[in-house]
Amino acid sequence: MTNEQETPKKSNKLQLNPAEKKMTKRLFWRNMWLGYAMSYTRQQGVAWDWVHAPIYKEIYKDNPDKFWEAMKRNMEFYNTTPNMNGIVSGLAVSMEQENAKAPEGTFDTAGISGMKIGLMGPMAGIGDTFFAGVWSLILSGIGISFAKAGNMAVLLLSIVGLIPVIAVRWYGQKYSYKLGSKYISKAVQDGLMTMFTKATSIVGVTVVGGMIASLVKFPLVFKTKINGNEFALQKIFDQIMPGILPLILSITCFVLLRKGKNPVLVLVGVVALGFLLTFLGITGA
Hints:
Blueprint: H1 18-30, H2 45-59, H3 64-73, H4 85-101, H5 110-148, H6 157-190, H7 192-215, E1 223-226, E2 229-232, H8 233-240, H9 244-258, H10 263-279
Antiparallel strand pairs: 1-2
Helix pairs in contact: 2-3, 2-4, 4-5, 4-6, 5-7
């Protein structure tokens, strides 16, 4: 009989200290309001700042300039499925904490913006597909059958429907934050953060380019006959480059905003241009 003692196994669970638990709980509840302050120009950007303001204030309590820089930087365009936002939010907070600890000018905050833009599309795709396209349809089908049978259990479906919502919001935020805080500091030390920043910037630009192609519409309906042949204005532009007009419109708006023009006036200008060109029979549905 041996007296050897077994070495206790280390837990693989990502544990949070009391301060982190308090912060993640607060962030969890504030993230519930992400979808309640939408705008045409920034979508959830303003709500993101409201959600994270007290968190940033605590992170940058020793450096007010960095706090206001973070608030301004995070006012950018952002839009994703609110139920999936905890994953992005947790990573973003862990990166902001690393920025607060890093010496001035050594942490490239473009990586935070790139990460948000790069993840918001995939998170929206997953979240919309599951919560709106799968989970809600399953619950609706069950609810209709219960309602037809007069089964009062249908009243419980709203509670059942919240289970995956709460689970994804809480655990997604918790583990993305803890994984981020564990590995981001090491990435900065090893120089991997620069590569990460470049990669997320490329992904972000790709996502924005895809959004322009899929969401910005500029259809030309003007047609006429020249020497007995049909002339379609849209075909001419498609031969130059498909989607060139949405691209030109988006770049024009971007340049105007970069020059400090009022976003509302830019939006009104786009609407006025649409009305004018439609009235002249150049554009249309």
